[in-house]
Amino acid sequence: MKKIVGIIGGMGPLATCDLMLKVIKNTDAECDQEHVHLLIDNNTAIPDRTEAIIRGGVSPLEELVISANRLTAAGADALAIACHSAHYLLPELEKIVSTPFISLIDTTTKRLLEGNNKTVALFATEGLSKAGIYQAKLTKAGINVLVPDDNEQNLVTEVIYDAIKAGHPLPRPERFQALIDRYRERGAEKIVLGCTELPVAVKKYEFEAEFIDPTYELALEIIRFAGAKLLTEQE
Question: What is the domain extent for residue 141?
Fold first, then answer.
């Protein structure tokens, strides 16, 4: 019997849809019954994670716990959070919530280690970059992590918050492609899309590089956990 996975979403809604779509597209299923049983809580009441990390805003913890308990009560055997920055609260969540979590950060770290990468660039929210979750895990594993400076981070933030979360057209997308190229020239073997909005932006604006898409990696782990069949090709 396949297991049920609950997704804590709403951070943001498009990123949540992207995760669900990648689970569906990467499941080897010939009928409805062979797909993963997903429960989605698109909880848009969860406070902004970067505001909490950087500027001492309202903590997302209470709403994350509400979503986790709601999904657990609905029958979830495991939970996944469709947001990188929210993982800074994962240690606290795991103390409160009995249902196990499939960690987006751990899944991505495992993928990078399997690829024998020596240097990667991390494009993420300002909050996640400042929290240093990826940097700590990857540096410990011997992987050098390059992160944008303050001016470069402003462009990454524009892509995340203005172009995807707010849905505004991105002025001069070539600026972001130039930023990607700059980090490749600095030695980054892979660009880690460390915000769940960024894979949406990459697809929409057709940015090019050797990307690591953590949403895709999480989708594969969800399929494995659920006991469904996995396709071998990335969608």
Answer: 105-213
Backbone φ and ψ of 64, nearest 5°: -65, -40
Residue 97: CATH number of its domain: 3.40.50.1860
233 lies in some domain = no
Residue among 101, 86, 107 at smallest CA distance from 221: 107
- pLDDT confidence band for 57 (50 / 70 / 90): very high
Question: What's the pLDDT tens digit per position in 90-102?
Answer: 999 999 999 999 9
The model's confidence at residue 115, banded by pLDDT at 50, 70 and 90, is: confident
Q: Which residues does the annotation mark as catalytic?
A: 83, 195
Beta partners for 79? Answer: 6, 101
Segments in 56-173 forming alpha helices (H): 61-73, 90-96, 104-114, 126-131, 133-140, 150-157
Q: Determine the Cα–Cα distance for residues 147 and 29; give it in Å rounded to an integer.
A: 39
pLDDT over threshold 60, residue 34: yes
- Note whether 125 and 49 are within 8 A (CB): yes
Among 203, 234, 202, 215, which Cα is nearest to 83's? Answer: 215
Contacts for 54-63: CB closer than 8 Å, 24+ residues apart: 54/126, 54/127, 54/130, 59/89, 60/86, 60/89, 61/89, 61/92, 61/93
Place of tokens 């303050």: 150
Q: What is the CA radius of gyration of the chain?
A: 17
Domain count, the chain: 2
A 10 A CB-CB count for 39 gives 18
